[in-house]
What we know:
A hairpin with a 4-residue loop joins β2 and β3 (44-47). Helices cover 29% and strands 17% of the residues. It is built from three helices and five strands. A five-stranded antiparallel beta sheet has the order 1-3-2-4-5, sandwiched between helices. It has 122 residues and is an alpha+beta fold.
Amino acid sequence: MESESTEIEIVRDDSPVRVSHLAELAGRITGQLVKAVVDVAGRSMAIGGLMHADEEAVLLDLGSRQRDLWGINLYPDQHGTDDFIEFDSMINLRPGQGNRSRSVDDPAIRAEIQAIVGRLVA
């Protein structure tokens, strides 16, 4: 069985993404959400993959460090609310970094992710 091919996009300060584009991606990929991986050191984000691990791999190939990458889900229909960002991904399981769940347990890292996403989504 072949899966639908998707192109992973890198979002940076100089190339923010519109909520309407996120909604289009959600419609094509999952119906309601967009998987994203945020590089907290590089202040960038990968979107458009079927799995967080695919986006993580692209960012690693571009020079990101794994310890700086966090998986989230974006719900375009919830933009502007607390439900816009969901902190849930298998790539977040990192006992060696003190993160023992699929969420992002450290409130400071969560706040940093929210700030980065807030800047990158227009």
